[in-house]
Write a structure and sequence with these properties.
3-stranded antiparallel β-sheet; 169 residues; 5-stranded antiparallel β-sheet; Aminopeptidase; 4 helices; alpha+beta; 30% helix
Length: 169
């Protein structure tokens, strides 16, 4: 186990998490910020990449589980991301749709922020949020993050405006 909060815990994902991950990453509502659903090959790449990140960096996106039932409800964690012209360590998360609006995103990102600062010794973490993802912007602000800048990235369907939020220890 990586960390636990009041209702949730994080642990490394493994190949046996593929089906749960697939259900989430192939849901068009969950993946709207990516503007496409993942294929089975995309899901496998996502899983393999995060397993590699655990070994290479000591962090990645971990599985989120409900303490009460051990049910997989999403993934969250830290990853190196390009933000305009710099690389940053981002707190990111995805939740299965049925677990939206229950406070889980705020709960798990708070735990990840504390883990990043207290266990990994990071001095600053970021969130890269699509301009129209109001719910994630609210989560970032609740975490104490401030919007640093706006930038545009090239993505599957063209240019996409993002906001870079951050918080320092």
């Amino acid at each position: 186990m990586i960390l636990e909060t009041e209702y949730l815990y994080l642990k490394e994902m493994h190949q046996d998490d593929f089906d749960d991950l697939k259900m989430m990453l192939q849901d068009p509502d969950v993946m709207y910020a990516y503007e496409h659903n993942f294929s089975d090959a995309d899901v496998q790449f996502w899983l393999d990449r995060n397993i590699k990140r655990y070994k290479d960096f000591g962090f990645g996106l971990w599985g989120i589980y409900l303490k009460e039932t051990d049910e997989f409800i999403g993934n969250a964690g830290l990853s190196m991301q390009d933000a305009d012209i710099e690389q940053v360590i981002e707190i990111g998360y995805l939740l299965k749709k049925e677990f939206w609006y229950k406070g889980y995103a705020s709960e798990i990102t708070k735990g990840i922020k504390e883990y990043a600062f207290n266990e990994l010794g990071l001095s600053k973490v970021y969130s890269i949020i699509k301009h129209d993802n109001i719910a994630s912007q609210k989560v970032a602000k609740k975490l104490g993050m401030i919007k640093e800048k706006e930038f545009t990235t090239k993505y599957y369907n063209g240019d996409m405006l993002h906001y870079l939020y951050s918080i320092s220890k």
